[in-house]
Structure formats: structure tokens, C-alpha cells
Write a structure and sequence with these properties.
Length: about 325
């Protein structure tokens, strides 16, 4: 594993810090005239879609101030786009165009701020600058995205909008996939390119295994899964190197590694996902043991304290990747 240059890590940190100070979304201001009166609008890029929003009369001081804020945000976004391009040239992993668009629409809809956490390989692909090492590209290919909902009260930041509406801004071919119960809102969405988005949430009781949980705000469902509550406890923010940068909520890398040790044993041992789980866990554990051993040991101990089943699954995976019980 190749450590990222300090200059790249510093530039990434500056990018992330600059985004955290931005409270206004970037956009292009334009004017329309109706009955000899001028009105201001803003156009924003959301994935593969451009949305237009009415701001108000051009001679309204409040509207003018809002338009000026948007123009300044657009200038800042241009600088961030340059930074993103530089970081990519320096070798930092970036999402594909398709995944970048998807993350952008989810972020701009306010989902990552509202309690949704990106998990799975799409999250793993964002960890390199967080851990200071260029993680293996072989383990980062994905044709799906898992959205873990930490709170069942999560809603879209935009009124009257479903998760499908949001996804269609990234790719208009997204459609809902019907589950076993046709009366239940969809929990899986699929595009014509074969990319899937699954909505999941934490397991609460045995009955949850048989039915999805409704998320009224997004007009979809979430499939409860065991061990998920451990994964998205105290998530962190990563910046996806797409466009002007996209802030995404992801699990702590140490918790991600331990969770992969657990779920790898739930899968069939000969499955591709089982092998990918262990490969990602092994790579992250090696990096964390080198750069942040206390964070990993704390995450591992937290999981082991949750019961004998947890300890058994973790031990079996550690043995498989040659690290032993006391790693």
C-alpha cells in the first residue's frame, strides 16, 4: 500500500474544510423579463439534471443579496473543482461519473445531513484520504450503493419528493423494484445500466427480518439488517472527488473494517461478496494498525462486548485473513 503524499492529504483537508464553511449552494444566476419587469432565477446542477429555481424580483434588495451569495458560492465551487482535478491527478481515488452523479443528487437533497449514511463498497472507495493510503482499486469496483438510514424520521430536504425522484436526477432510467409484499413501498431501485440502490436500516426485533420498514418521508422502505447499528454509529464525513466535491456521510473506517469481519461470516464462504468483505477488512486493518491502532482496537473491543455471537464471527474472519484472535 502506497502512502498518499503529504501535499495531497493537506490539499484534501483544505478542500473538506472549505466545503464545511459553505452554507449557500452554487448556481448560475440568470434574468427573465415579464411585462417589463426583471426577475432572477438560479440554475443548479444535480447529477445529470439542471434545476431552475425562482428567486424573486431583480430590484428586491433581499433577492439581490441572495443572488450575490449564490454567485460567490459559484466562484468558490470553481476553485474547488480545480482542487478536485488536482487531487485526482495526484492519484487520489475518485468515483466514476455515474457514482459521482448519484452521490451529488443524494447530497443536494439533504439526505446525508438528514441521517442517511453511505455504506458498502461505495463508502470504502472514499476512505483513502481519510486513512492516508491509496487503497486497492481492485476492491473498489461496485455496481450498487447501500444507503443506511440511521433514523426512521429521515425525510427529504425538498418538499413532496420521493427517493425515486431524487435518483432520477442522476439517471432518469431508475425504476422501483417490487419486493415480496407489493403493498410495501420499494426498498430497491435499479437503473437500465444495472446499477442498484438499496435502502437498509438497523435491526430492531425478530419480526423486522420478515418485513421492510416504511420511510414515509421518502416514500420508500428500508430492509432491517443485523449488526448495522454498530456500523453507522458516529459516522464521519468524506468528500467524494466529483465536480466541486461532494460531502458524504460514511461509517468510521475502523467500524467499517470490523463490520466487514462480521458480515463476511454471514455470507456463503465461496461467494464473491464474502471474499470482497475479507479483502476490504484486511486492507483497512493493516492501514489502521499502522496509522491509528487505538481507533481500531477500540472499535474491535466495542464489537466484541456485544455478545458471544459477535465475538465468534469476528474471530472466524480474523483467522481466515491470517490475523488471529488478538489482532
Amino acid at each position: 500500500m502506497q502512502p498518499l503524499p503529504l501535499s495531497a492529504q493537506t490539499l484534501y483537508a483544505n478542500l473538506a474544510q472549505g466545503m464545511s464553511f459553505s452554507s449557500t449552494r452554487a448556481g448560475s444566476i440568470f434574468t427573465q423579463v415579464a411585462r417589463s419587469k426583471r426577475y432572477l432565477y438560479v440554475t443548479e446542477k444535480h447529477g445529470a439534471t439542471r434545476l431552475q429555481t425562482y428567486l424573486g424580483p431583480a430590484d428586491d434588495p433581499n433577492v439581490q443579496r441572495k443572488a450575490d451569495d449564490i454567485r460567490r458560492a459559484e466562484q468558490a465551487a470553481k476553485l474547488r473543482r480545480t482542487t478536485v482535478s488536482t487531487l485526482k491527478r495526484m492519484g487520489l481515488p475518485a468515483p466514476t461519473l455515474y457514482v459521482g452523479r448519484l452521490l451529488e443528487v443524494l447530497a443536494k437533497a439533504g439526505l446525508f445531513q438528514g441521517g442517511v449514511v453511505l455504506v458498502g463498497t461505495a463508502a470504502y472507495a472514499l476512505y483513502s484520504p481519510l486513512v492516508g493510503v491509496a487503497l486497492s482499486h481492485a476492491a473498489m469496483s461496485t455496481e450498487d450503493a447501500d444507503l443506511a438510514v440511521a433514523s426512521l424520521a429521515v425525510t427529504s430536504a425538498m418538499a413532496d419528493e420521493t427517493l425515486l425522484d431524487i435518483l432520477k436526477r442522476a439517471d432518469p432510467t431508475f425504476v422501483s423494484q417490487l419486493g415480496l409484499d407489493p403493498r410495501s413501498p420499494p426498498r430497491r431501485f435499479r437503473s437500465s445500466a444495472g446499477f442498484e440502490v438499496d435502502v437498509i436500516t438497523r435491526y430492531r426485533k425478530r419480526a423486522d427480518e420478515e418485513r421492510a420498514v416504511r420511510l414515509a418521508g421518502l416514500q420508500c422502505s428500508a430492509q432491517p439488517l443485523r449488526y448495522l447499528e454498530y456500523l453507522f454509529q458516529e459516522p464521519v464525513t468524506a468528500v467524494a472527488l466529483y465536480g466541486a466535491g461532494v460531502e458524504v456521510a460514511v461509517p468510521q473506517p475502523a467500524r467499517y473494517a470490523v463490520h466487514k469481519l462480521i458480515v463476511a461470516q454471514v455470507r456463503i464462504e465461496t461467494s464473491i461478496k464474502h471474499r470482497k468483505d475479507l479483502a476490504q477488512a484486511k486492507e483497512l486493518i493493516a492501514v489502521l494498525n499502522e496509522n491509528d491502532p487505538h481507533r481500531f482496537s477500540d472499535a474491535l473491543e466495542d464489537a466484541r462486548r456485544r455478545g458471544s455471537k459477535w465475538r465468534s464471527l469476528i474471530s472466524r474472519s480474523l483467522s481466515e485473513i491470517g490475523l488471529g484472535r488478538n489482532s
